[in-house]
Amino acid sequence: MRHFAPSILDNHTLTxxxxxLPDVFLEGCGYTREQIEVxxxxxxxxxxRFFSCFLSHSKADLPFAERLLNDLRAHNVTCWFDRxxxxxxxxxxxxxxxxxxxxxxxxxxxxRHAIYRGNVVGRSFRRWSxxxxxxxxxxxxxxxxxxx
Length: 148
Fold this sequence. Notes:
- The protein is α/β, with parallel strands linked by helices.
- The protein has two domains: 11-42, no CATH class; 49-137, Toll/interleukin-1 receptor homology (TIR) domain (Rossmann fold), CATH 3.40.50.
- The protein contains eight helices and three strands, in the order H-H-H-E-H-E-H-H-E-H-H.
- The chain has helices at residues 11-17, 23-28, 33-42, 62-74, 82-85, 92-102, 112-117, 120-129, and strands at residues 49-56, 78-80, 103-108.
- Strand 1 (49-56), helix 4 and strand 2 (78-80) form a beta-alpha-beta unit.
- It is elongated, with a radius of gyration of 18 Å.
């Protein structure tokens, strides 16, 4: 596809037509591949859900993750949690990638199990950073700790 003059897309056009526009056209408008992915997530039927999070954990941390999930939901934070939100019949990796794209925050439970055994942290961070959204950090001292 060749652009003979600058191509400008407004919000109305993106809302109505983004799903039908090929990537090569959007690249010709000046968008990068990362920006195109973000646009497609933003204008998808379920755009980024603000005040929401994707909760990433190792299986060994399941009891703590479930307690954290209940606490977050009690404070009206929408959370994606694999045990409750994973749907059968669909590719699990596609579901996780899409869920990371549409949620406002990624919450990693960084236990020894997550870091050393299953590399949960590394995989989750790579997926999150590929969504082209900023990453914020907080000190582990300001988080919950387990006593069990």
